[in-house]
Each structure stands twice: as structure tokens, then as C-alpha cells.
TrEMBL record:
Assembly with partners or alone: Homodimer; the beta-strands of each monomer intercalate to form a hydrophobic core, while the alpha-helices form wings that extend away from the core.
Keyword DNA-binding carried by entry: no
One of the GO biological process terms: regulation of carbohydrate metabolic process
Subcellular location: Cytoplasm
Organism field: Litchfieldia salsa
Protein's job: A translational regulator that binds mRNA to regulate translation initiation and/or mRNA stability. Usually binds in the 5'-UTR at or near the Shine-Dalgarno sequence preventing ribosome-binding, thus repressing translation. Its main target seems to be the major flagellin gene, while its function is anatagonized by FliW.
Name recorded for this polypeptide: Translational regulator CsrA
GO molecular function, one term: mRNA 5'-UTR binding
Length: 77
């Protein structure tokens, strides 16, 4: 992990097209601004994890449904 110190209005550049700017610091809260192309999804970590878990559950439901259909088709044959 790279650790950098930044002050208000200072930025970090990631690649050619992602810029993270420290907007303000108040107590233990830091507000940041992120400039990135629209095709790059940006989420808070806890939201990202929730999305991943929901996608995994949806995939598992699809696999379970396919197994059930396969079993049903085999019984009819």
C-alpha cells in the first residue's frame, strides 16, 4: 500500500485520467473529490462489497435454477 500525505486542495493522480483531491479535513473526517471517466465505477468500499455479494447470490440462484431445470428435463426423458 502506498501511503501519501496531502493537504486541503492537494491531489493525487492515478494514471492519466483519475485525480483524487482532498477537499476538506474536519476532525477524523476527510472529504475527497474524484475526477474519473464516466465508465469507471466509483463506490464506497462497503457499497462495493454489498454489490459484489448481491451479484454472487444472483449468480448462485441462476446456477441453482439451471440445476433444477436440468434435473426436471432428465426426469421427463
Amino acid at each position: 500500500m502506498l501511503v501519501l500525505s496531502r493537504k486541503t486542495n492537494e491531489s493525487i493522480q492515478i494514471g492519466d485520467n483519475i485525480e483524487i483531491t482532498v477537499l476538506s479535513v474536519s476532525g477524523d473526517q476527510v472529504k475527497i473529490g474524484i475526477n474519473a471517466p464516466k465508465n469507471i465505477e466509483i463506490h464506497r468500499k462497503e457499497v462495493y462489497i454489498t454489490i459484489q455479494n448481491e451479484n454472487n447470490q444472483a449468480t448462485q440462484s441462476s446456477v441453482d435454477l439451471l440445476r433444477l431445470l436440468n434435473t426436471s428435463i432428465k426426469r421427463e426423458s
